[in-house]
Amino acid sequence: MFTTRLLVGALVSFGLTAWSFAFTEHGAIVQSIVQAQHECVTYLNLPKHRLYQYLMYNYSNDAKTKQMLRCVGLILQWWKSDGTLNEHVLAQYFMPDTSDSDYYNRTYRCIGRKAPVDDDLCSRAFETFQCYLQQYGELLNCPKVVPLSDERLTETMHFCLDVLDIPFSDFEQWTSSSELFLHTEPARCLLRCFTIRAGLYSDQHGPFADRFKLQFGAPKPDVFDNELEGDYCVARLRREGHDACSLAARSLYECYYFADTLLPTFVRILPLLRLVLHQPEVETTEME
Questions:
Q1: Residue ranges of the chain with pLDDT lower than 50?
Q2: How far is it, in rounded angstroms, from Cα 284 to Cα 172?
Q3: Domain carrying residue 79
Q4: For residue 184, what is the domain's CATH number?
Q5: Is-contact 192 249, C-beta < 8 A?
Q6: Which of 217, 228, 230 is nearest to 260 (CA)?
């Protein structure tokens, strides 16, 4: 009992103090299940004994716990507000047994039974997490990179547009075609700034394959399973002697499926960015 209390106390202390280490590599965020649970218990004004229960994986089947786990999912980006599961994000917090070949199918059979799409969002988030906890593997409490929300991606682009003194209208025009991000130096440098700020790229390493997969999901099956292919592509471009902005843009375009990952994201955050910058929406009229 004494050892258990020490463990719980240490975890609670970690949850209270770890926020100063939550940001790494520019805008990238790392966070653990423990940290997110502590945050959600605070937001929902739950009694502290609830946190102790959750730290011991005791998730009671009640409305408050369901609400808390949905909150955790929203913070860690494995659960969307519309009830969509980002399975590749949730999976990083679990370690399957190497001898278990059926953990994935077993987990999703469980979700199909216990978290039907017509159930309420809190119940679905709760049951989905429980299926992972019971079927997928061991829960890991080490911090993991959290995918950036559209709001934070918008902030990132706003920052880079401001730093590089690029008009919003230029960015809006470039999003109409992926090739336009290669044609001019400002467009290439904007792409480099955004991906560095978002923690997806560095001049020393190039694109981070694991973070691309986490942020966007694989644009097609097995795209990021073989990192050597992407690394070889980037190494080939390095040998061609490009400047920093050109190397970043071409690496993302040629080696990391820009048209299927970053470009759709840019299009999606355009309305948010327009609101932030107080830009009027461009109206299109049909030719008579």
A1: 1-24, 284-288
A2: 14
A3: 29-146
A4: 1.10.238
A5: yes
A6: 217
